[in-house]
Design a protein that fits this description.
heterodimer, A: 257 residues, mainly alpha, 74% helix, B: 319 residues, alpha/beta, Rossmann fold, Alpha-Beta Plaits, six-stranded mixed beta sheet, 12 helices, disordered N terminus
Chain lengths: 257, 319
């Protein structure tokens, strides 16, 4: 039985491998992680936002910003553990090389997911840093958005990893990004509130992990906390644990014959 | 050092088994690829798995590396059954895989440093060891190069250096020189011999008989998932073939006459396409025929491991 410390150390070594290969191309990578959400922020928040009434007592841009933080965390982590991890697993055979060292499959998976979450954190932090001087952060609670961004990154990192484990080729990521990530991006309350829509829309949205992340982030930046938030937090925690466990199992099945 | 293929451990009985397989079996989708084999790898030796493609060599060593799960039977590495994440086994192994799986996102030196970190080696120790190994595999001038700029031979040497970063007790090499040009292959062999002399136990697979004869103290010949022969290279040649071989070629106008001579005098005659091989247990009997064959097109040579291999596994093409 291997100690928790040793497992964490293993995951960290995989994380460091990713960091070392990333840092030489950090600028190019940052464009994808950070620039894209900022463009959305500018176009929707300040362009479209001029024609939109206040939502939940907030100017549109203040309503939109925390949703974009959550969506950025989702996108950054999802890209990393799909295209990134798939390349390392198949073409580059990096996973194979690593699991022949004392590192286990679970540690490889955890290391990659933590790396994905780190990119989420980076993207989320940049948006928060821009929100602050614009006066879009109304509560010190917004600091809690940072660890939450990391957690959301772990969740979507694990989800992408589980899909990667069953994807036969790159083409199959089209399904994932259109039907899973794309649907969540548009229908999880990032761009418009789900309240007031037909009840079934709300129920459907409740099934989407991003909905819970958006709700939590928005409450933290605006500073409106209530007990119902626990429900969202628990939903996210349970979903994350289940998907992480699943991703380790599936990758192991694919890698070790 | 081995003399005439007899390893000291076989004489002295020293060299405890580092790997021990009993009734080892592996099947994919109920198609067996390794069909119940027994073998040991003893400390200090270089053991070769010889076999045609699809013989089950790679599957067998991947089970030792804990990369393929054992189907049934027992497999102990360093006295421990394989299975689970097998961290304590993998810590003591060095693996050179068949295909290049160097990290293409990292430079040469980073490949070694990052790999050393997977073993939990401290930074200064990794760095010292990495520089030492770059010198050993003659890649110092490529220290900061990217993997894609390296030739096949350089990649194989770097993969070897990478496997050595943790000072493994057992080095596992899957076809270490496949795909290399002769120069590069001989450099790899030199390095492996030096390592074995320095006390590193080695297990390698190959289908180059010359490689096995050059490097291995003992060989196991595998075919269709079974071990069909085992022994020292010299012992196997002696047992299955004899001492010398005369090959006849059909472009010889008096080919039939020569064949008749061989069929009368040789201990064993084999035909493969247009060629006829005569095998002799005693070299002097082959040499005595040379004046008789002087006018014919023939080659006279010592028996090799390749003769053993072809005798035992047949001459038909394998997938």
């Amino acid at each position: 039985m291997t100690g928790v410390f040793e497992r964490l150390a293993g995951a960290c070594r995989v994380w460091l491998r990713n960091y070392e290969s990333w840092k030489d191309f950090a600028v190019a990578s940052l464009v994808g992680t950070v620039a894209e959400p900022l463009l959305f922020f500018a176009a929707m928040g300040f362009g479209l936002g001029r024609f939109v009434d206040d939502i939940q007592g907030q100017p549109y841009v203040a309503f939109l910003a925390p949703g974009l933080v959550a969506a950025t965390a989702m996108n950054a982590a999802s890209f990393e553990t799909t295209f990134g991890s798939f390349t390392r697993m198949t073409e580059q055979r990096t996973y194979e090389a690593i699991v022949m060292t004392p590192i286990s499959v679970a540690e490889v998976v955890a290391g990659d997911i933590l790396w994905a979450a780190s990119k989420s954190l980076l993207g989320g932090a940049v948006i928060l840093a821009i929100m602050a001087p614009l006066g879009l952060i109304q509560s010190p609670l917004a600091l809690a958005v940072l660890p939450l961004t990391f957690g959301v990154g772990i969740m979507f990192g694990a989800l992408g990893m589980a899909y990667t484990a069953i994807a036969p080729s790159y083409t199959f990521f089209n399904y994932f990004f259109t039907l899973v990530i794309g649907v969540m991006f548009l229908f999880s309350g990032v761009f418009f509130p789900l309240e007031g829509l037909p009840a079934w829309v709300g129920w459907a949205a409740w099934l989407l992990p991003l909905t819970h992340a958006v709700t939590l982030m928005r409450s933290l930046t605006i500073g409106t906390l209530d007990a119902s938030l626990w429900g969202h937090a628990i939903w996210l925690a349970v979903f994350t644990l289940v998907v992480f466990w699943l991703s380790v199992r599936l990758i192991r099945r694919r890698l070790i014959r | 050092m081995p003399t005439d293929g007899v390893h000291p451990t076989e004489i002295g009985g020293a060299g405890e088994p580092l790997v021990r397989a009993r009734g080892l079996l592996k099947a994919y989708a109920s198609e067996p690829v390794v069909k119940g084999i027994d073998f040991e790898v003893r400390r200090g030796e270089c053991l070769g798995f010889l076999g045609p493609n699809g013989a089950g060599k790679t599957t067998t060593i991947n089970m030792i590396c804990c990369f393929v799960e054992v189907g049934s039977g027992t497999l102990e590495v360093f006295g421990e059954p394989v299975g689970g994440d097998a961290r304590s086994i993998k810590r003591r192994l060095g693996v050179v895989s068949q295909d290049n799986n160097l990290d293409p996102d990292l430079t040469v030196i980073k490949n070694l440093l990052v790999y050393g970190r997977y073993f939990g080696l401290a930074r200064d120790r990794r760095l010292a060891r990495a520089e030492e190994l770059l010198a050993f595999v003659q890649l110092e001038e490529k220290r900061d190069a990217h993997i894609r700029t390296l030739s096949g031979g350089m990649r194989r040497r770097l993969t070897l250096a990478r496997a050595l970063i943790s000072n493994p007790e057992l080095l596992i090499l899957d076809e270490p020189s496949t795909g290399l040009d002769p120069q590069a292959r001989h450099v790899v062999w030199q390095k492996l011999r030096a390592l074995n002399r320095a006390g590193v136990t080695m297990l390698l697979t190959t289908h180059y008989m010359e490689e096995a004869a050059q490097l291995c103290d003992r060989v196991l010949i595998m075919d269709e998932g079974r071990i069909i022969a085992r022994g020292t290279p010299a012992g196997l040649i002696e047992e299955h073939i004899g001492a010398e071989v005369i090959e006849l070629y059909s472009d010889d106008p008096a080919h039939a006459d020569a064949v008749a001579v061989l069929e009368r005098e040789a201990d064993h005659v084999e035909r493969a396409g247009d060629e006829v091989y005569g095998f002799f247990r005693h070299g002097d009997r082959a040499r005595a025929l040379l004046p008789t064959l002087a006018e014919h097109h023939f080659v006279h040579r010592r028996a090799t491991l390749e003769d053993v291999f072809l005798r035992l596994t047949g001459r038909e093409l394998r997938e």
